[in-house]
Write a structure and sequence with these properties.
Layout: H1 2-22, E1 64-65, E2 79-81, E3 96-101, E4 106-111, H2 124-137, E5 145-147, H3 150-153, E6 167-169, H4 170-179, H5 183-192, H6 196-209, H7 232-242, H8 246-252, E7 256-259, E8 277-280, H9 284-287, E9 293-301, E10 305-314, E11 317-326, H10 334-347, E12 355-356, E13 369-370, H11 377-382, H12 391-419
Antiparallel strand pairs: 1-13, 2-4, 3-4, 3-11, 4-12, 5-6, 7-8, 9-10, 10-11
Helix pairs in contact: 1-12, 2-6, 2-7, 4-5
């Protein structure tokens, strides 16, 4: 009996101090990606948004470029950085991120730069590029008036507030797409581009022309769908290309925009006219006056988590950052993390370079690609966690501790009772 009690007390000593430490919420830190869990496909979906319709083939994974676009160092899936630039920011919850000089294209630091993640609404930057190309070609007029349809005002997700009987210029729609990420505006612009299939073809062709080879758009708006994919590297390429366009620079830098209203609906009893309103950007760094913020695009879905791409200027230098598959934590918001990334980028020497954002003008041939093997679902499922135990493992550990303590107390009580 004495040996058994001693054994129980030793187990409590060994196990319970660590359990007590995990009994309180543990801050989430940057997920480990050194083992390349997302080299071929995106993290596992958490809902049914990517379930393929019965009878339809599942999209094949994109080929993996070899060597990687932008330089051989970008083949790494962990943090890629130069020691001379100082320690990279801590407490970044994004699984993949990138910091680069927007003008020179030099990548200052990155984590899993070619890892494949869902873009969420940051893919609207790519949609904007397709719209801007159509305007430049003269196949779309910025001042053309578009009538809203039920498809538009019934679009899932964020909305600008289009309604029946409303009339909107292409400028209104493009502004709403960029400023508040309106999926109703994405729907209307998609129709002007010839429909969903034509728009997705144009978006994917545009991505390929930029050598954004980790990118496949499955929806124009960024809503999750089978095959949707991009990477921190690709988002930086796409955003950099968009920032070459003066109209995009104007719209992405808007803190607010007056969006038109629509008349009262005859099918809604007692409805009143819906006046236009002043929409505000979803980019809080811009809205709150973060110094030098040129603009950026936010995104979020349950499968993509938080995403962001944007640029800031200081002393004539422009830094672009990308955040993918991240979270906001108490006292550590996604915006706090973005600011620390900008600060790191501006502190880094101007010659810091771990890779390069290529441009179509470089004339470099696209790298060869290797066929992507189907991902191992077991490995993919285990790759989404962090270095810390999840809530269930914490509960199990605490439960084990409690059981050991209870058994120990029971044995001590029995021993005392036996002495009487």
């Amino acid at each position: 009996m004495r040996l058994l009690v001693l054994f129980i007390l030793v187990m409590i000593t060994l196990v319970c101090p660590s359990a007590a430490a995990y009994a309180v919420p543990v801050p989430v830190t940057t997920p480990v990606t050194d083992h390349c869990p997302h080299k071929v496909t995106t993290p596992p979906a958490v809902d049914t948004s990517e379930v393929v319709t019965p009878g339809s083939p599942a999209p094949s994974p994109l080929p993996v470029p070899d060597p990687p676009v932008g330089g051989t160092r970008l083949a790494g899936c962990g943090v890629v950085a130069e020691p001379d630039a100082g320690p990279v920011p801590g407490r970044l919850t994004s699984a993949g991120w990138l910091i680069a000089d927007l003008d020179t294209g030099k990548i200052i630091a990155a984590k899993d730069p070619h890892g494949r993640y869902r873009p969420a609404s940051t893919v609207k930057v790519l949609l904007s590029l397709v719209v801007l190309d159509a305007i430049d070609r003269g196949t779309m007029d910025l001042d053309a008036v578009v009538a809203a349809t039920p498809e538009d005002w019934g679009a899932e997700g964020d909305s600008c507030g289009m309604g029946p009987g409303g009339h909107y210029t292409v400028r209104d729609l493009l502004s709403g797409l960029i400023v508040v990420s309106g999926n109703d505006c994405a729907s209307a612009l998609t129709r002007q581009l010839g429909g969903v299939d034509a728009t997705l073809t144009a978006m994917n062709d545009k991505a390929h022309s930029l050598q954004a080879l980790d990118t496949h758009a499955s929806t124009p708006s960024g809503l999750d769908a089978a095959g949707m994919s991009t990477s921190p590297y690709d988002l930086a390429l796409i955003y950099r290309e968009a920032m070459r366009n003066s109209l995009f620079r104007e719209l992405i830098g808007l803190r607010d925009y007056r969006f038109p209203g629509y008349p009262k609906r005859p099918d809604v009893p007692g409805d009143k006219d819906h006046p236009g309103y002043l929409m505000q950007t979803s980019n809080h760094l811009l809205l709150d006056g973060y110094p030098g913020m040129l603009g950026g695009k936010t995104g979020y879905t349950d499968d993509a988590r938080k995403t962001f791409v944007g640029a800031t200027e200081r002393d004539g230098r422009r830094i672009v950052i990308v955040q993918m598959y991240g979270l906001t934590l108490e006292s550590d918001s996604y915006w706090d993390q973005a600011e620390s990334m900008y600060d790191y980028g501006f502190r880094a020497p101007t010659d810091t370079e771990v890779g390069l954002l290529v441009t179509p003008s470089t004339g470099r041939p696209a790298p060869a690609t290797t066929a992507a093997a189907a991902p191992d679902p077991t490995q993919a499922m285990s790759a989404t966690g962090t270095d810390h135990p999840d809530r269930w493992s914490i509960r199990i550990l605490v439960g084990l501790c409690a059981a050991l303590v209870a058994i120990g107390l029971l044995l001590v009580a029995l021993r005392l009772f036996a002495r009487r």
